Amino acid sequence: MTNDTITISRAEYERLVEIAEEMDDIAAFDRAIGRMARGEDEPVPAAFADRILAGESPARVFRELRGLTQAALAERSGVNRVQIADIESGRKSGSIATIRKLAQALGVAMDDLA
Known about the structure:
With 114 residues, the protein is mainly alpha-helical.
């Protein structure tokens, strides 16, 4: 592989970035549809999906969708309630093991909490 350089205009670069982002969105949609078709996923009510799309913590949204308090989720998952609060507020991201426990307790895929 050579280190060839190509120069393109800013407008062309931004167009390519936009296309790449759209392709990521399409791939995520296709994965979600595939999971639903295989019975691995459930539809999320629009009001809850809108909250996630608006940037709210997926952990909080799914917890509230399930009708759980932080304390109830802590008991169900074995994750400390303060740690859950930190993840929901964005102060901390949580380890893979923690996210796995939360995902299992909420009945969602780990990717859904990312």
